[in-house]
Amino acid sequence: MKNFFSYKYSSLYPLIAIVGGLTIVIFTLVFANDVKCTYFLITVYLMMFLFIDYKVCLKSLIYLIIIGGLFFLIAYLVSDRLDQGVSMLNRVAAFSVGMIPGVSLGPDRLARNLAQIRAPRSLTIGMLIVFSFMPTLLNESRRVKEGMKARGSFTVLNPKILYRAFLIPFITRIVDISDTLSLSIETRGFDLHNKNYSVYKKEYIRFFDILFILLIVLCIILAVIL
Amino acid sequence: MKNKRENFDNLVKTLSKSSEENQNSEKISKNEEKTVKISEENYKIFQKFKIKDIVFLAIISCIMLLTGAFMPLVSNIPIFGIIQICLGLQFSLFPAIGMMKVRKPGALLFMSFFSGIVLIFMNTIMFFCLLLCALIAEALTILIFRGYKSDWASFFAATLYLPLTLPFLYLWYKFFYSFTGEEGQAVSAFIGSDAGTAIGMCFAVIALCAVGAFIGVIITRELKKAGVIKK
Fold first, then answer.
1. Which one, of B193, B181, B2, lies nearest residue B79 by Cα?
2. What is the value of pTM for the model shown?
3. Could you give the ipTM of this predicted complex?
4. Distance between CA atoms of A89 and A72, rounded to whole angstroms?
5. Does A176 fall in a domain?
6. Which three-class secondary structure state does DSSP give residue B50?
7. pLDDT tens for each residue of A70-121
8. Which residues of B touch A186 (CB under 8 A)?
9. Taking CB atoms and an 8 Å limit, are B114 and A130 in contact across chains?
10. Pairwise CB contact (< 8 Å): B114 & A126
11. Do the beta carbons of residue B126 and residue B188 sit within 8 Å?
12. Which domain, by its residues, includes A74?
């Protein structure tokens, strides 16, 4: 009970963060054509500074300004109507604001939370891999491209070169990595059977998590009523 | 005394022989049981997933996501089938590879889920659509091919996977915008003014996905021949 009211900056309960993000995205997509939706997004965005790391919030603002601005301009120039431009901006903003709670979570916290509620291990493991494997894959593709250059092929635009010099070595490397990773996972004691296992450093719902979701719902109600 | 010793030696020999025979027969029966189990497992349509399957599918989904990272940029363009045209090649090539390696029903569903976890923030509609389409594609493949033993089954499922999202996206937009009373406007924006263009886009998506799935099947066959992917 003591911990329930304690305030921890940027540590939303993972599942609540995801539900909150999704609620924002879905509501904004439904009401994207309404100007109220813009006010809703601004309010929610400002509110997020209280609950989520300000660096994540600011990064999403950069994305919103560049991409949202571009789409606003395209929509406005094509239709010659300001409301169409705003509608397009709202749609882009829906994703950039809605993904803030999800992006602020570490994949480890989400996996721990799912393990805590006894979600299937296959899903937890797969999700962790998807989240944490992107930099590795980018590195691998860079290495394959360097290998291509070493063999004298400098472009992937030629389909033959793309197939023989990029895709085949890349998939071969992926198969190798997946074999090594699965062996490593098995030796660490992971398996897909529903055996009992301990979860250290459990995630608990706090008052501020509930407040976060309630504030989003309140904003939605106000946007619909007013 | 000698006779007694010989008798004892004979007894020991016969006993050891019988125990060896027993062990051999036990081994044979165990091997037979194993082969029966393996053949039964091969015969089953639904098989259990192992960790190595999940890991491979997750990595393939990750590649799918990386290659489709421009999706949030495209998703807002109100042209029918623009997302599918942009993602068609990679969302059929990599699933084909995944299903050719992990020949188990549910592989496509797992891939959809893993890619959807990140996709859910990029395009929520697409996440649900992909899950549903994976389910339908898998069900059709199982009904027609009885599993993924044939290469054509993987090709079929990978080709069908993304084009199936087209009708679902249409239905989704129709349902979604009916709340705001702009149903007609939204659907016409999505479909475009010309029905012919929409039909042309549908065929283009199917052709693109078929090409992607075909390349995926060829790559996997080549890697199997080279021994990189084990049967």
1. B193
2. 0.77
3. 0.77
4. 5
5. yes
6. coil
7. 888 887 887 778 887 888 888 888 888 888 888 888 778 888 888 888 888 8
8. 51
9. yes
10. yes
11. no
12. 9-107+204-225
Asked if B122 and B72 touch (Cβ cutoff 8 Å), the reply is: yes
Q: Per residue in B74-112, is it b (16+ CB within 10 Å) or e — as a string?
A: bbbebebbbbbbbbbbbbbbbbbbbbbbbbbbbbbbbbb
Q: Flag whether A197 is in a domain.
A: no
The Cα B28–Cα B23 span in angstroms is 9
Number of Cβ within a 10 Å radius of residue B230: 9
Between CA A120 and CA A110 the distance in angstroms is 13
Establish if A70 belongs to a structural domain. yes
The residue among A226 and B21 whose pLDDT is bigger is A226
Instruction: Identify whether residues A216 and A162 lie together within a single domain.
Output: no
A32 and A96 assigned to the same domain: yes
Residue ranges of alpha helices (H) inside A8-68 are 14-30, 35-51, 54-63
In tens, the pLDDT along A127-153 reads 888 888 888 888 998 998 888 888 887
Q: State residue A10 phi and psi, 5-degree precision.
A: 55, 45
Which of B47, B48, B51 to mutate: most A Cβ within 10 Å?
A: B51
A180 and A124 share one domain:
yes
Alpha carbon distance B217, B227 (integer Å):
15
